[in-house]
């Protein structure tokens, strides 16, 4: 069974401050006499649910088309940190103490971000502490997903968690919608 954990991309979807929001411009319209409807869409590659290609944070990194898709398909474990981090902040190793990381291939973190309406930006989201990112790399994790907009804090300029996850070839998913996903194995 497949579960859709993506956020819909609409003109009202909140984007990273300063980023390009979604918009549509119709080039041809059937109601104006054209034989087809044809539109141009514009938005950032980080609009809504997305994966981070290594090129996003490393000028020498792989672009999305060069990255293997198998990391994104398969068993996943959802954990809920909503109560542990009600105001956002760093996900510390102790937040994962109850998770047997040796048995987890793909870890998806649910937090208060899944409860934030799609049209609102909340800069107080959960993110990975560098020690936690390293712990995930050492565990052999294939994918780390979060309902937050980044695996690093909003003000980060070094993107330490992104870069640490890359050392272990851990793929990243951001802005997941896990509101209806209970903790467990999927």
Characterise this structure.
With 186 residues, this protein is mostly beta strands. Helix content is 10%, strand content 20%. The protein has helices at residues 130-139, 160-167, and strands at 23-28, 38-42, 50-51, 77-80, 89-91, 106-110, 126-128, 143-146, 171-174, 184-185. A 6-stranded mixed sheet has the order 3-9-8-6-4-10, with helices on one face. Strands 1-2 form a two-stranded antiparallel ribbon. Helix 2 (160-167) links the parallel strand 8 and strand 9. Helix 1 runs parallel beside helix 2. The longest helix has 10 residues, at 130-139. The termini are close together. The mean pLDDT is 96.
- How many strands appear in the DSSP assignment? 10
Q: Which geometry do the CA atoms define?
A: globular
Strand order of the largest sheet: 3-9-8-6-4-10
Low-confidence stretches: none
User: Sheet bearing the most strands, described?
Assistant: 6 strands, mixed
Provide the β-strand percentage band: 15-25%
Give the termini separation. Answer: 9 Å
Computed CA radius of gyration, to the nearest angstrom:
18 Å
Helical content band:
under 10%
Q: Order of SSEs, N→C?
A: EEEEEEEHEHEE
Q: Helix/strand/pairing class, anyone?
A: mainly beta
- Annotation field: number of helices: 2
State mean pLDDT (0 to 100 scale). 96
Characteristics:
two-stranded antiparallel ribbon; globular; single chain; 186 residues; 6-stranded mixed sheet; mainly beta; 10 strands
